[in-house]
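#struct-help
A.M.: can someone run this one for me? Single chain, 510 residues.
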Amino acid sequence: MSDFSSMPIGVDLAQLRTQAKELLQAVQASSPEAVTRFRAHHPRFPIASPKLTDAQLVLARELGYPSWPKLVAAARTATMGAADAFVEAAIVGKLDRAQALLNDRPNLTQATIYTACVYGDVDALRRCLENDRGLANAVGGPRKRPPLLYAAFSRIFHVVERRPHLLETVKMLLSAGADPNAAYREAPWEDSPLPALYGAVGVLNDAELAGILLDAGANLNDNESLYHSCDHVANDCTELLLRRGADPNSVNALAHQLDSEDPEGLRLFLSHGADPNRSAPTGGNALHWAILRRRSVECIGLLLEYGADVEAQSAEGVTPYRMAVRSGQRETAALLEAHGADTALKAEDHIIGALASGDASQLKTVKTNHPEALTEALAQHGALLAEMAGDGRTDAVRLLLDLGVSPDTRGAHHGTALHWASWQARPDVVRLLTERGASLEIMGANFGATPLQWAIHGADNNPERPWETFVETFQALMEAGAALDPSWLEEASEKVRVAFISFSSSSVII
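D.P.: on it. Structure tokens below:
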């Protein structure tokens, strides 16, 4: 089995990527040497149109690795050493990489206090602390953090048989004097320290681990943990924090809870004192945010039950009722009307509502009565296309395109409609946009990524959308001609990498 010991000395990832690009250019130019290398190492040679993935596969196999990702993993291990590579793999969730390192070196968990902590090797940790209890707060490892932070962020917690050992590891560290409020700072959010409790509730979603940290004195109101407890479908951690006394109004946690459809979680917040009239991130109250996120009438009803003001105005002076009409949420508008909302509308509201609903007949009627209002509305609401694309409202997207709105018009986070359709896994909208000429390689969105990169990121970070819709979105983008850089998959989950097998040889991706 190849491992980091076979990696050429002095070779790093940047050099490997450069070598792969140079090899691709050479084979595209029919260089005899490059053709010989491809013939010797590529399973599908000759290839009509070689891609970067093909060159990367050839380079990997020349160096003794079955695939590019395995070569990348070996290069990283060679750069940082097996112990640090094992710790890094554990905290970023590359459990297959961590297990491969452990298979090659069965005693690796005993190498340092940090390897012991991410794996839950209690005996190794005990020996470390018996020799020096000060190690409980010693900063080190690949990210220069104390041991508790490695344990509390270790994705090996998700391996059922390791979880009890990791819980015991955390208890042992705390008993030895580890700071339960240990936190790290990371660019570009240096002003927002991420503590061990955040690891427990926001990353691992483990209420028992969170309880252990709280019993040891972890700060309930650390500005991160309650907010990020809402990242998960299960509400155990959210319930624990609120029951222990976390302030539901100290951060924008209520708004974040409304980022997903979860009436049970919403009731938890409201029943523990969350204020539905507290200003939402973009102005207005929780009703505005819930309507923006297209929450169900059940969620809207809960906000009303707990006193949300139906006449509150957004930063633009729009009431929840007008906002519901504008976004085509007719059931929500009817519910607000039943609770006494003022139903007076402006011509602009009717037009935007027709556009959001994709209702061409209604739009025609409004245009007849207010011919100048459509042009003005489109000019003032340029982000509407991206919003409708992210919501999967195909008819609305088609109507806006028919009216001459550019498919590359930008919305939130400077993302185009194709960015948002990709991140929200709306394959039908992706196909429509690409058919209408949306740019597949457009940059300039926040996070500096193409629509395909947004789709890859969404597949691992957008739990609201079914996995199957992401696979279909990948397919729609690739069939439309989106370029795939395999480096985008290096930090993706294994299931995302496997999903791209149909677009390249399996050995390239996994």
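A.M.: thanks! The two ends are 16 Å apart (CA to CA).
D.P.: also worth noting: The beta strands are 183-184, 194-195.
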